Amino acid sequence: MLQRMIQSVAIGCFLVFGVASQGIAADYDHTVEAKKMTFSWKIDGENLAGKLTAETDGWVGVGFNPSEKMKDANYVIGYVKKGVVTIVDEFGTTSTGHKNDTKLGGTEDVKVVGGSEEGGITTIEFSIPLKSEDKNDGNIDVTADTTVLLAYGAGRDSLKSKHKFRTTMTINLGTGEVK
Fold it and tell me: Quick check: helix, strand or coil at residue 104?
Protein backbone atom coordinates (compact mmCIF):
# COMPACT_ATOMS: atom_id res chain seq x y z
CA MET A 1 0.00 0.00 0.00
CA LEU A 2 2.74 2.47 0.99
CA GLN A 3 4.71 1.53 -2.12
CA ARG A 4 1.67 2.28 -4.34
CA MET A 5 1.22 5.69 -2.70
CA ILE A 6 4.88 6.52 -3.30
CA GLN A 7 4.57 5.45 -6.94
CA SER A 8 1.43 7.58 -7.38
CA VAL A 9 3.15 10.64 -5.89
CA ALA A 10 6.24 10.05 -8.05
CA ILE A 11 4.13 9.76 -11.20
CA GLY A 12 2.17 12.91 -10.28
CA CYS A 13 5.39 14.87 -9.72
CA PHE A 14 6.77 13.64 -13.04
CA LEU A 15 3.66 14.78 -14.88
CA VAL A 16 3.64 18.21 -13.23
CA PHE A 17 7.36 18.88 -13.64
CA GLY A 18 7.51 17.21 -17.06
CA VAL A 19 4.81 19.46 -18.48
CA ALA A 20 6.33 22.56 -16.85
CA SER A 21 9.77 21.79 -18.29
CA GLN A 22 8.33 21.60 -21.81
CA GLY A 23 7.37 25.27 -21.60
CA ILE A 24 3.61 24.79 -21.81
CA ALA A 25 2.09 28.13 -20.92
CA ALA A 26 -0.57 28.59 -18.31
CA ASP A 27 -4.10 29.66 -19.15
CA TYR A 28 -4.54 33.00 -20.86
CA ASP A 29 -6.78 35.78 -19.56
CA HIS A 30 -8.04 37.11 -22.89
CA THR A 31 -8.74 35.84 -26.42
CA VAL A 32 -9.80 37.50 -29.65
CA GLU A 33 -10.85 35.69 -32.80
CA ALA A 34 -10.65 36.84 -36.38
CA LYS A 35 -11.73 34.56 -39.20
CA LYS A 36 -9.74 31.32 -38.66
CA MET A 37 -7.21 32.85 -36.24
CA THR A 38 -7.06 33.45 -32.48
CA PHE A 39 -4.77 35.55 -30.31
CA SER A 40 -4.77 34.74 -26.60
CA TRP A 41 -2.71 36.61 -24.01
CA LYS A 42 -2.12 37.47 -20.40
CA ILE A 43 -0.03 40.05 -18.63
CA ASP A 44 2.63 38.09 -16.76
CA GLY A 45 4.47 40.58 -14.56
CA GLU A 46 6.66 42.67 -16.87
CA ASN A 47 5.89 40.45 -19.89
CA LEU A 48 3.12 39.73 -22.32
CA ALA A 49 2.57 35.98 -22.70
CA GLY A 50 0.89 35.22 -26.00
CA LYS A 51 -0.51 32.40 -28.06
CA LEU A 52 -1.35 32.54 -31.76
CA THR A 53 -3.38 29.83 -33.47
CA ALA A 54 -4.54 29.70 -37.08
CA GLU A 55 -5.94 27.23 -39.53
CA THR A 56 -2.75 27.10 -41.62
CA ASP A 57 0.30 25.00 -42.27
CA GLY A 58 2.38 28.18 -42.65
CA TRP A 59 3.40 30.96 -40.30
CA VAL A 60 1.38 33.02 -37.78
CA GLY A 61 2.16 36.51 -36.57
CA VAL A 62 1.13 39.44 -34.42
CA GLY A 63 2.27 43.06 -34.56
CA PHE A 64 1.89 45.82 -31.98
CA ASN A 65 1.45 49.59 -32.44
CA PRO A 66 2.26 50.42 -36.06
CA SER A 67 2.40 54.10 -37.00
CA GLU A 68 1.05 53.51 -40.53
CA LYS A 69 -0.15 50.13 -41.84
CA MET A 70 2.85 47.88 -40.92
CA LYS A 71 5.45 50.59 -40.32
CA ASP A 72 7.08 50.84 -36.86
CA ALA A 73 5.24 47.81 -35.45
CA ASN A 74 6.91 45.25 -33.19
CA TYR A 75 6.25 41.81 -34.75
CA VAL A 76 6.33 38.29 -33.37
CA ILE A 77 6.19 35.78 -36.23
CA GLY A 78 6.63 32.03 -36.06
CA TYR A 79 6.06 28.62 -37.57
CA VAL A 80 6.55 24.97 -36.74
CA LYS A 81 8.51 22.75 -39.12
CA LYS A 82 9.10 19.05 -38.40
CA GLY A 83 8.21 19.68 -34.75
CA VAL A 84 10.70 22.54 -34.31
CA VAL A 85 9.25 25.91 -33.29
CA THR A 86 10.84 29.01 -34.83
CA ILE A 87 9.76 32.45 -33.61
CA VAL A 88 11.40 35.73 -34.60
CA ASP A 89 11.29 39.34 -33.43
CA GLU A 90 10.83 41.75 -36.34
CA PHE A 91 10.26 45.47 -36.90
CA GLY A 92 8.05 47.22 -39.46
CA THR A 93 10.43 49.10 -41.74
CA THR A 94 7.85 50.28 -44.30
CA SER A 95 4.08 50.41 -44.58
CA THR A 96 4.17 46.99 -46.28
CA GLY A 97 7.27 45.28 -44.91
CA HIS A 98 9.30 44.23 -41.89
CA LYS A 99 12.80 42.93 -41.09
CA ASN A 100 14.48 40.99 -38.33
CA ASP A 101 15.36 43.21 -35.34
CA THR A 102 18.93 41.93 -35.18
CA LYS A 103 19.57 42.97 -38.80
CA LEU A 104 18.45 46.48 -37.86
CA GLY A 105 20.75 46.79 -34.83
CA GLY A 106 18.13 45.64 -32.34
CA THR A 107 17.88 42.55 -30.17
CA GLU A 108 15.87 39.33 -30.28
CA ASP A 109 13.53 39.88 -27.31
CA VAL A 110 10.91 37.22 -27.98
CA LYS A 111 11.11 34.03 -25.94
CA VAL A 112 9.75 30.80 -27.39
CA VAL A 113 7.36 29.10 -24.97
CA GLY A 114 6.06 26.37 -27.27
CA GLY A 115 4.19 25.49 -30.41
CA SER A 116 2.70 22.79 -32.57
CA GLU A 117 1.42 22.06 -36.05
CA GLU A 118 -1.24 19.39 -36.15
CA GLY A 119 -4.16 18.75 -38.47
CA GLY A 120 -3.62 21.95 -40.44
CA ILE A 121 -3.54 24.11 -37.28
CA THR A 122 -0.40 26.07 -36.36
CA THR A 123 0.07 27.33 -32.80
CA ILE A 124 2.96 29.29 -31.33
CA GLU A 125 3.38 30.48 -27.74
CA PHE A 126 5.77 33.25 -26.79
CA SER A 127 6.68 35.91 -24.25
CA ILE A 128 7.86 39.47 -24.89
CA PRO A 129 8.76 42.27 -22.48
CA LEU A 130 6.20 45.05 -22.09
CA LYS A 131 9.05 47.55 -21.80
CA SER A 132 11.84 46.49 -24.07
CA GLU A 133 15.33 47.96 -24.11
CA ASP A 134 15.29 47.43 -27.90
CA LYS A 135 14.79 50.67 -29.86
CA ASN A 136 12.75 48.74 -32.45
CA ASP A 137 10.27 47.18 -30.04
CA GLY A 138 8.79 50.16 -28.26
CA ASN A 139 6.74 49.76 -25.10
CA ILE A 140 3.32 48.22 -24.66
CA ASP A 141 1.07 50.15 -22.26
CA VAL A 142 -1.50 47.65 -20.97
CA THR A 143 -3.71 50.44 -19.63
CA ALA A 144 -4.07 52.08 -23.05
CA ASP A 145 -5.47 50.97 -26.38
CA THR A 146 -3.02 49.01 -28.53
CA THR A 147 -3.26 48.55 -32.28
CA VAL A 148 -2.80 44.83 -32.90
CA LEU A 149 -2.12 43.33 -36.32
CA LEU A 150 -2.89 39.63 -36.83
CA ALA A 151 -1.85 37.64 -39.88
CA TYR A 152 -0.98 34.19 -41.15
CA GLY A 153 0.60 32.74 -44.25
CA ALA A 154 -0.21 29.47 -45.98
CA GLY A 155 1.46 26.77 -47.97
CA ARG A 156 4.94 26.74 -46.49
CA ASP A 157 6.95 27.49 -43.39
CA SER A 158 8.74 30.56 -44.70
CA LEU A 159 8.71 34.05 -43.30
CA LYS A 160 9.20 35.35 -46.84
CA SER A 161 5.79 34.16 -48.02
CA LYS A 162 3.05 36.76 -48.06
CA HIS A 163 0.09 36.62 -45.70
CA LYS A 164 -3.08 34.81 -46.70
CA PHE A 165 -5.05 36.63 -43.99
CA ARG A 166 -4.52 39.86 -42.08
CA THR A 167 -6.56 42.14 -39.87
CA THR A 168 -6.15 45.10 -37.54
CA MET A 169 -7.80 45.50 -34.13
CA THR A 170 -7.68 48.01 -31.32
CA ILE A 171 -7.43 46.20 -27.98
CA ASN A 172 -6.88 47.20 -24.39
CA LEU A 173 -4.48 44.39 -23.49
CA GLY A 174 -5.07 44.90 -19.76
CA THR A 175 -8.85 44.51 -19.85
CA GLY A 176 -9.25 42.52 -23.07
CA GLU A 177 -11.73 45.04 -24.46
CA VAL A 178 -11.82 45.13 -28.26
CA LYS A 179 -12.88 48.41 -29.86
Answer: helix
